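Customer escalation, tier 2.

The customer says the design service returned an amino acid string that "doesn't look like it belongs to this structure." They asked us to rerun it and document both sides in this ticket. The original structure tokens are below, unchanged.
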């Protein structure tokens, strides 16, 4: 399957690309497809799968990932905003798209024009969509979000009936789905809270039905919900991180880990080698002091690229099959590593910052733990300055 982005083999040395900064991410579309089918096998056959590709597909590239997921049989796509939905439409994606964050004032017409289904939770925005749909001579589908305990967006669960009554005033809106979002589906110690959320959602669905609404979709389960709470599948699940092989820090522990594969790797190349004497310091703040004569390599990647500053003096990379530590503070554009113990290290050697190299690997979850964050932030944070290369295999 070809795309607008050249598909290349990830075994080809990206640093051989003449005229390009030798820092890149490789996105394995076959791994993405395998993860999608793992989710599909996990849920019942009558449960549809909404592939969440918001935040540029968690940093992996929304258009390319959506094309492959569509080819693999995704039923819906989930995005954060109409802007992200429009990007998919302009990339040729035709499947239904749900805007999980709703829409802003003035975007009702765009939602209709690009056939985007917005989530609604405010009556004023529902009214604006109704007016736009009436002017266009159509009925607009929406999903209503119920806040069952997350506390971010949504109609309070105890106010669901009141909100449903108010929606009756909008004849050009059809409630095609009801949804909620779990706050702690990944935490077995809070299973009671997750069960309470599911019960509150069921009550809200009943409140809508009592008022004559018959939503097609009942949508509760994110990645953790899909894997840990079968009672919350509804008839539409919306996996996000697990599609990209991010699961060790967002799924509850299980005796049999899911067959998920990382999709992204991040690589760079040594641009300079130098020796520094014992006692010399490196980088901003002089936070690294050489305890011996040290061979230092400079990499053309920094925190603007998404290699987090919090990995300074704490992270490590892989060079020639050997782990090499980050030395000093990570700069905006450059990172220093200690390659004293890397036999035969040379200028232009490939460096793996995320992913596998021979028998060694660095996972997004590992980087996240070191940085004190979540694996999602690791991949979402890889900036647009880093070229994505898409591969099958």
């Amino acid at each position: 399957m070809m795309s607008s982005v050249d598909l290349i083999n990830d075994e080809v040395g990206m640093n051989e690309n003449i005229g390009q900064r030798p820092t890149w991410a490789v996105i394995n579309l076959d791994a993405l497809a395998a993860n999608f089918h793992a989710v599909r096998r996990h849920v019942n056959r009558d449960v549809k799968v909404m592939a969440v590709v918001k935040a540029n597909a968690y940093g992996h590239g929304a258009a390319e990932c959506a094309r492959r997921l569509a080819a693999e049989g995704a039923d819906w796509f989930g995005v954060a905003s109409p802007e992200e939905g429009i990007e998919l439409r302009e990339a040729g994606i035709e499947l239904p798209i749900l805007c999980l964050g709703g829409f802003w004032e003035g975007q009702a017409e765009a939602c209709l024009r690009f056939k985007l289904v917005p989530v609604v939770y405010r009556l004023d925005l529902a009214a604006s969509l109704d007016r736009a749909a009436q002017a266009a001579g159509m009925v607009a589908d929406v999903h209503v979000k119920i806040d069952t305990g997350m506390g971010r967006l949504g109609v309070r669960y105890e106010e669901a009936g009141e909100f449903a009554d108010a929606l009756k005033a909008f004849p050009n809106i059809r409630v095609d789905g009801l949804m909620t979002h779990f706050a702690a589906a990944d935490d077995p110690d809070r299973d009671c809270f997750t069960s309470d959320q599911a019960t509150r959602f069921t009550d809200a669905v009943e409140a809508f039905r009592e008022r004559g609404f018959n939503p097609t979709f009942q949508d509760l389960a994110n990645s953790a919900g899909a894997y840990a709470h079968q009672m919350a599948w509804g008839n539409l699940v919306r996996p996000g991180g697990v599609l990209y092989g991010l699961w060790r820090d967002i799924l509850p522990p299980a005796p049999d880990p899911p067959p998920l594969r990382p999709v992204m790797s991040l690589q760079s190349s040594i641009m300079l080698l130098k020796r520094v004497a014992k006692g010399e310091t490196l980088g901003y703040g002089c936070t690294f002091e050489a305890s011996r004569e040290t061979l230092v390599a400079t990499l053309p990647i920094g925190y603007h690229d998404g290699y987090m500053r919090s990995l300074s003096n704490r992270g490590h990379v892989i060079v020639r099959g050997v782990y090499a530590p980050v030395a000093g503070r990570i700069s905006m554009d450059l990172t220093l590593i200690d390659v004293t113990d890397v036999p035969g290290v040379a200028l232009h050697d490939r460096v793996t910052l995320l992913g596998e190299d021979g028998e060694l690997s660095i996972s997004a979850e590992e980087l996240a733990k070191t940085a004190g964050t979540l694996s999602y932030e690791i991949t979402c944070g890889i900036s647009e300055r880093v070229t994505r290369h898409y591969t099958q295999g």
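Tier 2 assessment: The sequence is consistent with the input. The longest helix spans residues 191-210. Residues 1-17 have pLDDT under 50 and may be disordered. Sent an explanation to the customer and offered a walkthrough call.
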